[in-house]
Design a protein that fits this description.
alpha+beta; 11 strands; nine-stranded antiparallel β-sheet; 5 helices; disordered N terminus; globular
């Protein structure tokens, strides 16, 4: 009996040494501000209350960051509109749920992206994704360009920057007119 308990204790200790603590496993979806961790979902909810100018400042302060790869969860941000949280939820339920990125080449710095739309989350509306110059501030950004890939969205251009690990703030342009902001979150790879 004592031998069995000792063996169990040894296995438990070995597991705890090889598996990082919960906070380290979840750092992909959590940004640190000072010593306080802020989950990305909470950060996105706070963005829903910001003005367009405040969102622009946040975007300008960020670097373009890493290119997203795979499925992302999207949240439209209706800055300056009444009930922006309710509108974001409605738009996500009925219209747009995010984007799926498929990067190509050795550098993984360009590829294609498809939008998840309709209540069924269908993968529709394809665009090219690459690094380029931001129309907002002229700095490096990740460009999502529909001009050569979509009849429906030919005059649309999105730009995104990584504000925190796995969290992107985006700008939507219709022609050269800015029309909307949005957030993209990469899923946590440790979640089942």
């Amino acid at each position: 009996m004592a031998t069995q308990t000792m063996a169990q204790s040894t296995r438990t200790t070995a597991k705890s040494r090889t598996r990082p603590p919960s906070s380290a496993r979840n750092n992909r979806k959590t940004a640190r501000v000072g010593t306080t961790a802020i989950p990305n979902a909470d950060r996105v909810r706070s963005w829903l209350r910001l003005s367009r100018d405040e969102l622009d400042d946040l975007y300008r302060k960020a670097d373009s960051g890493a290119m997203p790869q795979g499925d992302t969860r999207g949240t439209p941000i209706f800055a300056g509109w009444p009930m922006p949280g309710w509108l974001a939820g409605l738009a996500r339920t009925l219209g747009w749920q995010g984007k799926v990125f498929d990067l190509q080449g050795k550098a993984r710095d360009a590829g294609v992206v498809v939008n998840k739309v309709t209540p069924l989350g269908l993968n529709l509306i394809v665009a090219k994704v690459y690094r380029g110059e931001s129309w907002l501030d002229g700095r490096d950004t990740i460009v999502i360009d529909y001009s050569g890939t979509s009849l429906v969205a030919r005059s649309v251009r999105d730009e995104i920057r990584e504000v925190a690990p796995g969290l992107y703030l985006g700008k939507v342009w219709l022609g050269r007119r800015r029309v909307l902001d949005f957030a993209l979150e990469l899923p946590d790879s440790t979640e089942s």
